[in-house]
Structure to design on (193 residues):
């Protein structure tokens, strides 16, 4: 799998749906419990900056992972951050470098870290699209790649829920497609969309 290319596709789709938000949309509740669309996009922006720093050897510096207090124009701030992370991931050798990811708790080979980013942006693109009531346009190969990553996320209830990256996994009905299965494995209810 070309994880860099799949991630690029997911990030571009996230940028597209974020840019559909109008002024009155930023305070809408998102599928992320307790987060408005503004807070979700601030998180996405910070994650892009953090992963870009990690790709360049500075992932252990907390400042790169800090959500901006004043987003100004949230869609613009997100687009700038997305451009930065895509440039970092596209650098020669990025997939072979070691990334420090404090929120995941360690150091990971670049290919694995970028796969984490991929699944995050498939899910966050869905979060934004769901908040806005718009469709998501991701190819099957990207969704299948994200599902492969989601299936490897530990499902131990002790590491899921408030204060953790994911809610407890939900039951996956037989015949679920790759996006639905990914969402359910990571604690999202597709019925919200």
């Amino acid at each position: 799998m070309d994880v860099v290319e799949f991630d690029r596709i997911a990030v571009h789709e996230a940028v597209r749906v974020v840019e559909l938000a109008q002024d009155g949309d930023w305070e809408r509740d998102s599928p992320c419990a307790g987060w408005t669309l503004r807070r979700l996009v601030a998180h996405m922006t910070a994650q892009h900056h953090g992963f870009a720093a990690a790709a360049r050897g500075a992932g252990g510096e907390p400042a790169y992972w800090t959500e901006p207090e004043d987003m100004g124009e949230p869609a613009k701030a997100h687009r700038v951050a997305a451009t930065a992370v895509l440039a970092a991931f596209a650098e020669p050798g990025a997939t072979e470098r070691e990334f420090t990811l404090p929120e995941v708790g360690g150091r990971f080979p670049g290919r694995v870290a970028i796969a984490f980013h991929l699944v995050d942006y498939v899910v966050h693109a869905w979060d934004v699209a769901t908040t806005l009531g718009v469709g998501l346009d991701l190819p099957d190969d990207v969704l299948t790649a994200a599902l492969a990553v989601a299936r490897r996320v530990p499902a131990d209830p002790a590491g899921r829920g408030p204060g953790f990256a994911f809610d407890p996994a939900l039951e996956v009905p037989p015949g679920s497609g790759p996006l639905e299965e990914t969402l359910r494995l990571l604690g999202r209810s597709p019925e919200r969309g």
About this structure: DSSP finds six helices and two strands in the chain.
